[in-house]
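Handout for the seminar on molecular recognition.
Each group receives one record of this type.
Step one: identify the two inputs.
Step two: read the structure output and locate the region that could contact zinc ion.
Step three: write two sentences on what you found, then compare them with the reference statements printed after the record.
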Amino acid sequence: MIGKMLVKEAMNAGAAHPQLSSGRCIDARQAKEKCGLCAGVCPKGAIIAPQNGRIDWDLCVGCELCTSVCPAEAFSLTADTRAAAQRLLGDGRSSHVVGCRMTQAGADMKLWCLGSLRWELAARLALEGRLELVHGDCEACERRGSLPCFDKTIERLRHFLGEERYARMVSVGRREAGEGREVTRRDLFGGLFRRGREQPPKEQQAQQEKLSSEVEGVRLSLVRRMDRLPEGEGTFGFVSPSFTDKCWACGICERICPNRAIEMEKRGEEWTVACYPSLCTGCGTCGVICPEKAIDGVIPIRIEPGVRRVVVHVNAGVCADCGAAIKPGSADTLCIRCKAKARSKRRINP
Ligand SMILES: [Zn+2]
C-alpha cells in the first residue's frame, strides 16, 4: 500500500500534468457550497475529489484546463508550460504568440487549447508589449467544449488591462499554416532598450514575499512586472472581497483565505480589514464562510501598480480585557476567550 502510494507520489511529480495542492481547494476549506469547476471542465473525467487529492492522473492528458478555471489556484501549471513561459519572459522580445495545438500557424508557445491559458500568464506576456493569441477552426474542433474557459480568460484579461491597453496589447484570431508570427524590428531590438529594473521599496518587497509565498509564481511575476512600470501608468483590474457594515472583524475569513489576502488589523482602538487584491484569486470562500454574511461577494476593483492594500474600516466592539474585536451592540464587554477565562477563574476561586 505504502509502496503503491510512493509510486503514485513519484508519478505525480512528473512534468506531464498539473500539480494539485488539495489544501487550497475550495471544497477542502468549506462544505457550504460545492465548487466542482475543475471536474466540470476535465475532458477525461480524471478529477474525482480534488479536496482529498483524488485525481486519476493516468487519465490526465495535461490539457491544463483545471489550472485556468480553478478560482483558488489549487492546480499549478505543468513543468513544461512553466518552463516555456519562463523562456518567453526571459527572451527580451516585446511581442509573443501563443497558439492552441490545433492551429497550423507558428507560435512561440502552444497549449492544448487557448482555454488552458491562465489569465495571469496572458497578462504577464501582454505587459511585455504585445500578445497574439492564435487558434484554428474552433467550431470544427473536438476541444470546443473548453471555449467557455477561454472566454473567462479573456474577460479577466480585459478587466486587468482595461479596454484601451487590451486593444493595444492583445489580439485574438484564427490563423492557418504559413501565417506564423512576423518578427518586427521592435522584437529584435526591444531587449536592448528595456527599462532598467527598479525594485520596489525593501519593506514592501519583504511583505510581498511573505504574503505571496503560497501563491503561484505566475501571479507573483505579474505583480513584480507591474512594479517596474513607469509612474502614471494608470490602474489595473483586480478583484477583492466586498465588506459590508455587518463585518466586525471576527477573523474567520482571514483564517480561511488560502492566499492570506485578508488581514484584520487593530489601529488604535479601531479595527480595520486590509485586503490584498494582488493576492486575491476571487475564489469567494470568504463570503461563503462568513457567519455574519458580511462579505457581499468578490467585486472587480482597479488599483495602481505598487498599491498592495485596500483598507476598510469596520464597526467592531473591543474586548475590555484583551482588546480583541467583539460584535458591536452586544451586552458582552469581553471576547469569547476572555469570557471563558473569567468563568474558569470563578470556578477555581468562587
Ligand atoms: Zn478578550
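Reference statements: The chain is about 35% helix and 20% strand. The pocket of zinc ion is lined by residues 319, 321-322, 324, 334-335, 337-338 (CB under 6 Å).
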